[in-house]
């Protein structure tokens, strides 16, 4: 029952449907194959065929499409440790003067564990959100002329290159601007697997809406007239996060109707007979708009 977790083990109870990710099954399985398949190979076989694990991936695409969600769920699925999350702008602002130290710290636990446990070390996932922020002005004094961006990128490079023996690290960089990412970071052995996570198509939108209304449905709070297929059709260019916003907004309309009908005091734990109806979603559609807009043409 030895668990070679620098390799890792997919949880036996794993089901894609349980991950709460809508519309990204193809992306998810591609990332899995390209970046993680090597980690579920038994160590003996891995040695025989000289498998090198991928240590860095880049997820890119518009905001709110589920990049962070995927990164976190991959960690859960592989039974990895709770990922460490770091954010580009935060690094630039907060850590002026000590950015290198902070990057070093991010990798320290994994390094220590690898030394102590070798191949029995767990997989450590580091999520670097808004990676473009530290890359933007590399070479021209990043971070508003402080040069912090430079040193963060350099430190990342040195950590990624230095982890020759570190099989237990996976760095997941995320960005809305792949064009801003320093090319040096994208080379083989660094953030070498690149995956675009784009806006969901109609089918994906319906799945996302289904996920974000699941609790309401379970508790009988979703009226029978709510047509998620129709809503998916009407929400072209909505990201996952915007669809979640739509559900929130429609809930607020349903609550408003309920409060008007009775009194605020009438809101008990089960919110009485409140139900979210199709009309609430349609009103919400007038209030929540996608970042990338919807044209009349889109709705034909
Ligand atoms: P950013 O580029 O702004 O960091 P992101 O792509 O990392 O955005 P997330 O943080 O993963 O986006 O998405 C925000 C929230 O929107 C998620 O926590 C989730 O609730 C919802 N969401 C986004 N995409 C999906 C999806 N494909 N399926 C289900 N929920 C989603």
Q: What is the fold's blueprint, element by element?
A:
Layout: H1 25-36, H2 43-48, E1 56-60, H3 67-77, E2 84-87, H4 88-94, H5 99-117, E3 124-129, H6 132-135, H7 142-145, H8 148-162, E4 169-175, H9 183-186, E5 193-196, H10 202-212, H11 214-218, H12 228-234, H13 240-261, H14 278-287
Parallel strand pairs: 1-4, 1-5, 2-3, 3-4
Short description:
With 300 residues, this protein is an alpha/beta fold.
Overall description:
The protein is an alpha/beta fold. Helices cover 46% and strands 9% of the residues. The chain has 14 helices and 5 strands. The protein has helices at residues 25-36, 43-48, 67-77, 88-94, 99-117, 132-135, 142-145, 148-162, 183-186, 202-212, 214-218, 228-234, 240-261, 278-287, and strands spanning 56-60, 84-87, 124-129, 169-175, 193-196. It is elongated and about 60 Å long. The chain binds adenosine-5'-triphosphate. Residues 20-24, 63-69, 129, 174, 176, 200, 208, 211, 240-241, 244 line the site of adenosine-5'-triphosphate.
Helix percent band? 40-55%
**Distance between the amino and carboxyl termini:** 57 Å
Ligand kinds: adenosine-5'-triphosphate
Strand order of the largest sheet: 2-3-4-1-5
Number-wise, the strands total: 5
What's the pLDDT, averaged over the residues? 82
Features:
single chain; 300 residues; alpha/beta; five-stranded parallel sheet; 46% helix; elongated; binds adenosine-5'-triphosphate; Vesicular-fusion protein SEC18
């Amino acid at each position: 029952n030895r668990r070679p977790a620098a390799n890792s083990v997919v949880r036996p109870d794993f089901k894609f449907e349980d991950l709460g990710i809508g519309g990204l099954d193809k992306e998810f399985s591609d990332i899995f194959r390209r970046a993680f398949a090597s980690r579920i190979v038994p160590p003996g076989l891995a040695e025989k065929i000289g498998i090198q694990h991928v240590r860095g991936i880049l997820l890119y695409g518009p905001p709110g499409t589920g990049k962070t969600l995927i990164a976190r769920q991959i960690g859960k699925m592989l039974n990895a440790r709770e990922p460490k999350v770091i954010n580009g702008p935060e690094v630039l602002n907060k850590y002026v003067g000590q950015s290198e130290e902070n990057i070093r710290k991010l990798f320290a636990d994994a390094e220590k564990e690898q030394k102590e446990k070798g191949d029995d070390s767990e997989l450590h996932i580091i999520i670097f959100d808004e990676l473009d922020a530290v890359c933007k002005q590399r070479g021209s004094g990043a971070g508003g002329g402080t040069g912090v961006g430079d040193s963060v990128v350099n430190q990342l490079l040195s950590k990624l290159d230095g982890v020759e023996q570190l099989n237990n690290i996976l760095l997941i960089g995320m960005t809305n601007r792949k064009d801003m990412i320093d090319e040096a970071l994208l080379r083989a052995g660094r953030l070498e697997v690149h995956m675009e996570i784009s806006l969901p198509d109609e089918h994906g939108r319906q799945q996302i809406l289904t996920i974000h209304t699941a609790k309401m449905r379970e508790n009988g709070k979703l009226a029978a007239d709510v047509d998620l297929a129709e809503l998916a059709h009407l929400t072209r260019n909505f990201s996952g996060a915007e669809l979640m916003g739509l559900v929130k907004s429609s809930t607020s309309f349903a609550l408003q109707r309920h409060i008007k009908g009775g009194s605020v005091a009438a809101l008990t734990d089960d919110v009485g007979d409140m139900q979210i109806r199709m009309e609430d979603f349609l009103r919400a559609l007038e209030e929540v708009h996608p970042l990338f807009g919807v044209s009349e043409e889109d709705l034909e």
